[in-house]
UniProtKB/TrEMBL annotation:
The keyword DNA-binding applies. One of its GO terms (molecular function) is DNA binding. This is ParB/RepB/Spo0J family partition protein. It comes from the Bacteria. SMART domains: ParB (SM00470). CDD domains: sopB_N. It comes from Vibrio marinisediminis. Coiled coil: none annotated.
DNA sequence: TGGTTTGCGACCGTAGCTGT
DNA sequence: ACAGCTACGGTCGCAAACCA
């Protein structure tokens, strides 16, 4: 039996009236009135008491840490990756408290809510969390895994988990992984490639969770063709004094920034290791309007801003020429 | 100006192919 | 023969374009 944040809230605020508090102040008030400490069975075993705590914004980073075995890669959590949480957090405060355990050194291990934790740090908002005193590491891992079901992990994070299953022998091969993770073999292939890429490269993107298999496969191909030294150069480009590559993009929207970053990386790779025979030997005939590419005996034409009359003339010419 | 439509790009799974 | 990869087709979401 899993324990979820939503269950905790149901206990705290009453199942019929979901939740009425709209600000952290209200939430705390409600907590004081109804239950500052609640007891729940963790993983269907012993009852554990959880105390609702409020961590002030400037202390979140120092007083709490993310559970070490959490599969979520913390360095990917930036304003883009957290945009879904940040919008409501800024407007109305934290809607659902996180769940954690007290460590021996007095810090709080965040088990469920690492995205909310980072959002509070970024937005400068107080962090609400239910804290228990005695949760062993096994139960902590259980809570952490259940929590990660809320927001799917990125391909990189899935790939890291898959790698671990392969190394431990829990999974024999990629087929077994596909069964275990309930996904296609193609996705397993992509996830493992993602996990094979260095963190610094992926951090060039605004939101790693947005990177799908095709993007990862392409990136992996580009990266793996580089020599060791060139890989280092590329990673240097991904993060300079100004920050990550995505921070240098002027594009609007995560999708566009992502595309921008892909193009930046592609250009860097090309610069470092020019392909012997250009992948696409595209030639600009009239800049911005007409280009063509030649591959073997094939010719591909690309025309822009062509009206119907001109199109008809061109097609007729081709027809007459090649018939 | 705000709501709706359209078009593009990126995703995923399936099926078939390739290399060991 | 089999594990893993790639190409293809259908689907979805986002942003630009359009219209009232």
């Amino acid at each position: 039996m899993a324990i979820k944040t939503s269950d905790l809230n149901a206990r705290l605020f009453g199942k019929t009236n979901k939740r009425r508090a709209t600000t952290p102040q209200e939430a705390q008030q409600a907590a004081k009135e109804q239950a500052q400490v609640i007891e729940l069975a963790v993983a269907g075993e012993e009852m554990v008491a959880f105390e609702l705590m409020r961590i002030e914004a400037d202390q979140v980073e120092t007083d709490t840490v993310v559970f070490a075995e959490n599969a979520r890669e913390q360095s990917f959590l930036n304003e883009h990756a957290l945009s879904d949480v940040l919008v409501t957090l800024r407007e109305r405060g934290q809607q659902y408290p996180a769940v954690g355990r007290m460590r021996e050194d007095g810090k709080i291990d965040v088990l469920d809510g690492s995205r909310r934790r980072m959002s509070c740090i970024l937005a400068g908002k107080p962090f609400l969390i239910y804290v228990a005193q005695n949760i062993n590491t096994e139960h902590a891992k259980f809570l952490s895994d259940v929590a990660n079901a809320h927001k799917p992990l990125s391909l990189y994070e899935k790939g890291k988990e898959m790698q671990a299953k392969l190394e431990s022998g829990e999974a024999e091969d990629q087929k077994a992984l596909a069964k275990m993770f309930q996904c296609s073999e193609a996705l397993v292939s992509g996830a493992l490639k993602a996990a094979d890429l260095p963190l610094e490269l992926l951090q060039a993107y605004p939101n790693v969770a947005d990177l799908g298999r095709p993007t990862i496969v392409k990136l992996h191909k580009q990266f793996s063709q580089l020599s060791h030294a060139d890989k280092g150069m590329l990673l240097k480009n991904c993060r300079d004094d100004d920050g990550f590559a995505w921070q240098r993009s002027a594009a609007q929207g995560v999708a566009r920034i992502t595309k921008d970053v892909s193009e930046m990386i592609e250009a860097w790779v090309e610069e470092l290791s020019p392909s012997k025979r250009p992948a696409s030997n595209k030639v600009d005939l009239i800049k911005g309007r007409v280009s063509y590419s030649r591959k073997g005996a094939n010719l591909a034409l690309n025309l822009k801003k062509v009206d119907d009359d001109v199109m008809q003339e061109i097609l007729s010419f081709i027809e007459a020429k090649l018939n």
